[in-house]
Amino acid sequence: MNRVTKLFGIDYPIIQAGMIWCSGWELAAAVSNAGGLGLIGAGSMSPVLLRAHILKCKETTDRPFGVNIPLLYPCVEQTMQVIADEGVKIVFTSGGKPDLWTSFLKDKGIKVAHVVPGAKYAAKCEAAGVDAVVAEGFEAGGHNGREETTTLCLIPRVRETVKIPLIAAGGITGGRAMLAAMVLGAEGVQLGTRFVASLESTAHIDFKQKVLECAEGGTVLALKKLAPVRLLKNKFCAEVMELESRGATPEELSALLGKGRAGKGMFEGDMENGELEIGQAASLVKEILPAGDIVRKVWNEYLRAVEEIKRNC
Amino acid sequence: MNRVTKLFGIDYPIIQAGMIWCSGWELAAAVSNAGGLGLIGAGSMSPVLLRAHILKCKETTDRPFGVNIPLLYPCVEQTMQVIADEGVKIVFTSGGKPDLWTSFLKDKGIKVAHVVPGAKYAAKCEAAGVDAVVAEGFEAGGHNGREETTTLCLIPRVRETVKIPLIAAGGITGGRAMLAAMVLGAEGVQLGTRFVASLESTAHIDFKQKVLECAEGGTVLALKKLAPVRLLKNKFCAEVMELESRGATPEELSALLGKGRAGKGMFEGDMENGELEIGQAASLVKEILPAGDIVRKVWNEYLRAVEEIKRNC
Predict the structure, then answer these.
(1) d(C-alpha A111, C-alpha B307), whole Å
(2) pLDDT tens-digit map of A89-102
(3) pTM beyond cutoff 0.95
(4) Which of A138, A248, A309 sits opposite B306 (nearest CB)?
(5) What is the ipTM of this complex?
């Protein structure tokens, strides 16, 4: 038991990131049923669809689960209303400012965590009354900070800056990395990439397969002139990198990106022209497992790593 | 005692990186005298100057010390001859191919470590008969890999790929990060940035001061079209970033870089026009200390972090 497990009422401080297009009710419920914290990824759902996922999740688990919302998402107001109406108890917000929605949520008794890429943003979370901060390093998949601070450098900085519970994200797929993050000052970990490659994730099977095949250097932080996002290297990503190398403007990059690329890739399975968001740690993911097995496996690896320290150091 | 301390005959598996312009005999001897492994940075020294540093280091410490050589350095042949002539016992090579000089050195009974940014290069080191591999992540200062793999993702990959002793580098300034690296599979750590800000480092005092002032996001991996190098953001770095944003060619970047920028910045103290190589972990460095105190402090922090695990987990 630590502050993170107590805050969310979970058994293990292992949180499944609410990745867009990959994190529906099946994944969230499987993680929560295994004793971790599952999150429904609202960023790729209409408010109506989100409501359906929340209802299914409630049917499937009696354990705490949450919803992740990118605050720059266009339907954020209706989405927040759905969350309030359906009595969701835990919300992870990302992107945008933590003071925008925190009091709305906290007034309803909802626990709020906010994702940040740097210590100064963590301080803003604390000031806004956020319950826990997720510090996400450069190695993480999807949207990422401009400072490019890696998890190893980020966690100690956030730890010395804020007092609220700290969850580490970015580059963590297993129990050893979990212990490493805890040693640096985290009290819990959030895994995205590892759960993309789970049985229950709604990622297209071809995308899951690509994650397994991903080698070192198989991802890149791209689109920095728009909003930095870590992508699996594919045809679309090569086109982005080619444009960027030639000094393309944000407008040119926007035109190439267009609309709906992420869904096309991660959900519909267009491995050439889709936008495939994944973390560097894909190079460490070796198998597609049921999400509950992932939770138990990570926790057992963590315990074994602790035992090794006790025995050898 | 572990394989790294045994290999080098040192007390603590704490290695000072052989940073160019910052790592003369005073720093190397101070680190070695404190029980770590000090390295003279030959990359910014003529062979004649290197010989003088080796002689002074031998006078100042009876403990093992080594020399770091970037293999793409133009005087590498004469430098290797100086090392052989002076009976240096430990050499760290970086850049270039590990099979180029390893047998030359090992034939003379010299222990060889090679610095790599990825697991596939680590495998080449092992095949070349290198004694230990230094795996250096994206957050490290100075020259860096194209894959941009962070230390957190890199160490487990290298650990599962090679059997030889593994030293982690990049983002490590203290004992907690040291333990985190050990948990991930490292058997020792190499610190560069922290030792730049030591009393004995030959970095210009203004550069040391800039390191202390460095905030999150205060460094950037730049010059990727030449050879990627992590720089402290200053006027020169802003010029590089401006050129890169416009899609400059390698030739244009080379012309801007010119010759001798690193010495001008780090050694001579031109904080505007110099090239200032430093790691992301500069944001965690808070004081300039004697190098021996740094070794002892890091080791004691490591021991305290181990005790915490034993007590709390």
Answers:
(1) 32
(2) 999 999 989 999 99
(3) yes
(4) A309
(5) 0.97
